[in-house]
């Protein structure tokens, strides 16, 4: 019998561990707690107490309305070139007058040394205090830009009441805000006239305007959703706003009411006043009893703007019974048009302030706004790049508000000429001014990219044809 010889085993050589590089993620989430910037870093507010700062009336009285007041606040932190740049914009280009609450100014260059360069680069400054050097000189306005780019005034069914969508209306209660944003889509009506824009004026007394709204809504039971806006509802005396909302709640067919207020971020002190909180609770309680969804829509464009006071105002609204607090931002170059900026903002909104990221609109085609606008393809890329990071319910939709069409997700276009920057869109309803238009639902409606973002051939085409 043959014996099997044992097989000699040779130990495997010991391998030296090799570090395998990791690709990482395009965006790395890091929780960032909210901080209220120190307002005493500004020379003009060196002696302002917390009690003053958290007082809504102090905030309103000390809003920055002109260059002289800005100088008092900033002192010598920025140099004369900035003020000259700002004056040039105010005299010839600005579509909105200056109005910046201390709360908003305090979120500009919040945690680094204030210098002229840092102030110019600040994303909040870029849309709240625009200067001439921000704007484009080749194409400051698109050839198709207009004062009322969404034709809201054309669709008024009563003064200040826009009926664009079949089941929804926009109620503009007034034409003022606690703060004026440079990119305002309602720049034809809202705010003071500027050298560049002679504003429209509301003619009716508020009580008559509100009566007309209520009468229209009672006569049109197909409308179930009212966006109560302006301007900004924070500028409506609370007793008047509460009366209007209670009248809406008496209309059986109204099922959704949304209060539009940038002041939740720009002037949170207003929404923390005792009389406002108590009144909002009465409205919320009545809405809940009648099965109506009451929400607040605010407008935050950058992470810097979210502070503990903003979070407190949002949480207070939720605590007294408002169903949701949602954010509708605007995409703007130099402000937030990167995936990182949008995600930073959304995590601060949803995770730290209890505000739901809802929409990001493409900046509308108003005059002198081309330096802010982004092309449709860029908005599509941003929608792609922010997916998968946020909870699904808190992932905002990026939308294009197409003239005569309305909000459309940026991927819903029918055709896109990238060379000339013209996208074409369709719709599935008629606006209030198209009731007799039998072919409105078969038309294609155009939207236009900023010309400076086009290839050279596209820019040359517009140069040759824009006067046509």
TrEMBL record:
Keywords: 4Fe-4S, Iron, Iron-sulfur, Metal-binding. InterPro entries: Aldolase_TIM, Lys_aminomutase/Glu_NH3_mut, rSAM_sf. The keyword Chloroplast does not apply. Signal peptide: none annotated. It comes from the Bacteria. One of its GO terms (molecular function) is 4 iron, 4 sulfur cluster binding. The keyword Iron-sulfur applies. Residues 1-23 are annotated as: Disordered. This is L-lysine 2,3-aminomutase. The lineage of its organism: Bacteria, Bacillati, Actinomycetota, Actinomycetes, Micromonosporales.
